[in-house]
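Sequence in, structure out. Go.
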Amino acid sequence: MPAIVAPGDAETRVQQMAVEAMGRKLNKGQLAAATTILTTRDRVVAVQGVAGAGKSSMLKPVVRIAQGEGRQVIGLAIQNSVVRRLGADTGVEARTIASFLNEHEYRPGTSLRGAMLVVDEASMIDNRTMERLVDVASAHGVDRLVLVGDRRQLGAVEAGKPFDVILRAGSRTAVMDENVRATTPQMRDVHAAAQKGDVPELMRLLKADTIEAPGTAAAVVADRWMALSSQDRSRTGIYASGRQLRGEINEAVQQRRMAAGELGRAPANMTVLSPVHLTREEQRLPEHYTRNRIVEFSRGVPTQGVRSGFAEVVGVQDGVVTLRRQGGVQERFRPARLAANRVDDFVRVYERQNLTLHVGDALRWTGTDHERGLINADRAQLTHIAPDALTVTTADGRALRLERGDPMLKRLDLAYATSTHAAQGVTSDHGIVAADSREGKLITTSLLRVLATRVREGVTLVVDDGRRLEKVAERQSGEKTAASEVAGPGAPPPR
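Output:
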């Protein structure tokens, strides 16, 4: 592959562009990563950057220089929320990996020839997706596949940790190990302990800012956030270790805002669809299709007589899931017969959830409507409740009226707290972190690493039992095992 920029010119051009784009130069690690991307002749290049290393700032001049050299640059990520941030932070055209693969995987052409693909949060990509992405890059003549991530952050939901394997295999790699997110001495120490996975040291550093609240964590978090000024609330993120705790905090904050007169009195009582996150293998197991759950098929299964759309589970027996469509028609679905090579969104499972909303509530979308620019995990605010519709203000400031029966009214939730997986890539000046040691396998070193490194200036930790949380998190790293690690040792990863 040809270099995008001649090695002798790269550092000067990068720093000039950084000053032009951001008003400042890159630090040593950022500069090394940027020049590696622009000067390598390898198709695949990895950037291993610790949380808070300024990876987005590094990419901004890289994108502009590559575009100036006539290269098409496309940003990619697993999550819609990361896609949005990547586009906003770097100015690159960004989209989800799933939509990119759906467009290009089986369509030969030259539209990507010479392009640069920039993949953010690459540690969240599973084996199958990485293989498909590399195959598309090779088949379409992509010049540069840039994988940016942190091997010690949360990994993929599906099998494998290919980003880590690529680092261990000796791929061309740049390392960014200087944290520029933390702005106070204490937070720099907290980030350093979290990055090293030193749970006892992390808990020691946070001890003075830790509140033990067994059984009342949601109430304590809500009270502390409500005590803040409006300006400080906007600078303070609430981060929860799991979905249940996030839901409890959302409800507690809403109740206190109601009591304080910050929300409208008239309620909108909704029934929404809460996603049940299943791996591709779990989708093939009948036990995950429990009675009353809702199943969505993005396309039909003609061999089983199952149509596309939504259906309710009314029974499961002998590996057969009985589905009921609107109107009462029943279909028989055998999950074990799902094709191994099916598209990622072929089948989705939901649980019904009762949700009461008030004018002024902060909302987040749990699904996507591309035509109206409503993206999964983006936020909105409820501004009006009418008998036949709700009106919201979207993240980009648009007033949008959603008529009763609109599918997106079933794909929303309260947004006062953020769960760990959604928090990866999110930052705030201050943070209130809630973690419950009883959440079992959720409590890992990786989880605490993500939660502790979201914050720039100061963090409060609310837990049920600090000592027990430390023991559980220290015992469970949360890092996945690759097949190559089981088969035999490899080269040590870059640090």
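Check: Residues 183-266+411-494 form a domain with the Rossmann fold fold (CATH 3.40.50.300). The chain has three domains: 7-176, 183-266+411-494, 273-351.
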